[in-house]
Design brief:
This protein is α/β, with parallel strands linked by helices. Helix content is 28%, strand content 16%.
Length: 364
């Protein structure tokens, strides 16, 4: 018999079946800021008007940039204010450990050691419940939960900002991008200029999120995270911010559904199928919203794992039908499979123009 322990829910990312989940139209931004004058603590801001009194001008401006958002503005900003000498992780991040957020930015003066420490902290909390991602300046984390924002010379009016100063803006833009969209080519309307990247394609391949000026406006290049080394059993698509959001969110929403409504219920076959139906309804909704490919979403009991478990308990499964295996008593265990095809954003185009009145005329 397996060792009796805490109830477990294991979500495994499979290359063969991308998983998807509900995407909020407006995500949540978290910010850690250092401020010598404001009272330290965690503040929940629904709008810029909710900023605590005493914030320095630069910090307040950073919060305002986060609220600019993307297609939508962020739902809210969780502002963790720490003293000028306080530790980034033990003081700033600790206040966010039990919070629900989508993107986290750090103080403008964050250094490489602190970036490594905050990434380790995030990896730890993500292994439990959190689905937040980090936006860090010039940090090649090789991590799908870390966005390596690589930009400089960001000109807004009379001011020029560093990439570190603009991480909160990027966090807000990503949080304000619905899951049905990609942030690729998202414009930053307030930005008038940016230092050009010599080789944008190489930068993107290196896992850098960069800004480009297309001659009309400044915008994000391809919306990628810092992941470069993809495990052989996972998909290259996990380099894309949009795909990772979907994978993360299914982990959260499936846990919420199961833990809030099904943990502790009688483990009959009928009860299991009610759970399967709930998950399938959830995926069907995502299909209708254009988050996953229509007809690709599926939820079912995991026949293979259930058969293997019964066999490990000494049950003779050789002569059992699939239905008999699925209906068999499995103690406290429930094995599930769900997935679907995540719809990517339109990013790569091939347009041909033909001169003449009919298709097939001379190409120009």
């Amino acid at each position: 018999m397996a060792t009796l322990g805490a109830p477990t829910l294991t979500i495994t990312i499979k290359k063969a079946a991308d998983t998807v989940v509900y995407r909020l139209k407006q995500g949540i931004v978290a910010m850690i800021v250092r401020d010598a004058t404001a009272t330290s603590g965690l503040y929940v801001l629904g709008d810029v008007a909710d900023m605590p009194s005493g914030l320095g001008t630069d910090v307040a401006d950073s919060v305002r940039r986060a609220f600019l958002g993307g297609v939508n503005r962020p739902q809210k900003v969780l502002l963790s204010v720490i003293g000028s000498e306080a530790d980034l992780v033990t003081a700033g991040a600790a206040a966010l450990a039990s919070s629900d957020f989508d993107y986290l930015s750090c103080p403008d003066d964050v250094d490489s050691t602190e970036m490594e420490e905050i990434t380790d902290w995030l990896d730890d909390v993500r292994s439990k419940y959190c689905i937040g991602k980090l936006v860090l300046p010039e940090y090649a984390a090789d991590n799908m939960a870390v966005v390596n924002f690589s930009a400089s010379g960001i000109k807004v009016g009379a001011k020029t900002y560093t990439g570190a100063q603009y991480c909160s803006r990027i966090a807000g833009l990503l949080a304000g991008t619905p899951l049905s969209n990609s942030a690729t080519s998202a414009p930053l309307d307030e930005v008038e200029g940016v230092t050009a990247v010599a080789d944008p394609d190489a930068a993107v391949a290196a896992g850098k999120l960069i800004l480009v000026h297309d001659g009309r406006k400044v915008k994000l290049s391809r919306a990628v995270n810092s992941l470069v080394t993809v495990p052989t059993d996972q998909s290259e698509a996990l380099k894309k911010i949009k795909i990772v959001e979907a994978v993360d969110l299914i982990r959260r929403e499936s846990k919420i559904l199961i833990e809030d409504q099904y943990v502790g219920q009688g483990n009959s076959y009928d009860a299991k199928m009610v759970l399967v139906a709930a998950l399938q309804d959830f995926l069907t909704t995502l299909e209708a919203e254009g988050v996953i490919l229509s007809g690709s979403g599926y939820a079912e009991l995991n026949l293979e794992k259930q058969r293997a478990w019964l066999k490990s308990q000494g049950v003779d499964v050789a002569n059992m039908t699939d239905t008999e295996i699925l209906k068999a008593d499995t103690g406290s265990y429930v094995w599930l499979k769900m997935g679907g095809t995540i719809l990517d954003g339109m990013e790569d185009f091939d347009l041909e123009f033909y001169m003449g009145n009919t298709v097939g005329g001379s190409a120009a």
